Amino acid sequence: MAVISWMAGLFYLPRVMVYHVERAVTGDVLDVTFQVMESKLLRVIMNPAMIATWFFGGLLVVTPGIVDWAMVWPWLKGGSVLIMTWFHHWLSLRRKDFEMGQNSLTGRQYRLMNEVPTILMIVIVLSVIIKF
């Protein structure tokens, strides 16, 4: 459940930021509305889900017999989760940019960044299924 919640937020927050950039003007009512949406999505859903994902994933990693570290897939999955965590923090910094009225990215740039969690999800799922 934690992974699903975290992924949903990673898919949705960049999309909200696209609309924020394209529809709102700094300081107007819509700007404030988007800031509240972005903040609550991060604080109430994404941050707890990421922490729970790391906690339960860590339990799996330290459980004997679950992970064969001689194979490539756990390293690929782990690296992808680290990149996903970096992306989460990058989004958090972009939210703060909006809050300070200093966003410098375009809707197109947020749309491109919206593909990052999709690519990582594909890598993670395929690495676990194929287990090479």
What is the string of helix and strand elements?
A: HHHHH
* Count of distinct strands: 0
Structural class: mainly alpha
Mean pLDDT: 97
Number of domains: 1
Share of residues in helices: over 70%
Count of discrete alpha- or pi-helical segments spanning 4 or more residues: 5
Compute the gyration radius: what is it?
A: 17 Å
Largest sheet: none
| Cα shape | elongated
Q: Gap between N and C termini, in Å? A: 26 Å
Runs in which pLDDT lies below 50 for 5 or more consecutive residues are: none
As a percent range, the share of strand residues is under 5%
In words, what does this structure look like?
The chain has one domain. By secondary structure, the protein is an all-alpha fold. Helix content is 80%, strand content 0%. It is built from five helices and no strands. The longest helix is centred in the middle third of the chain and has 34 residues.
In short:
The chain is mainly alpha-helical and 132 residues long. Helix 1 (2-23) packs parallel to helix 3 (73-99), helix 1 (2-23) runs antiparallel to helix 4 (107-113) and helix 3 packs antiparallel against helix 5.
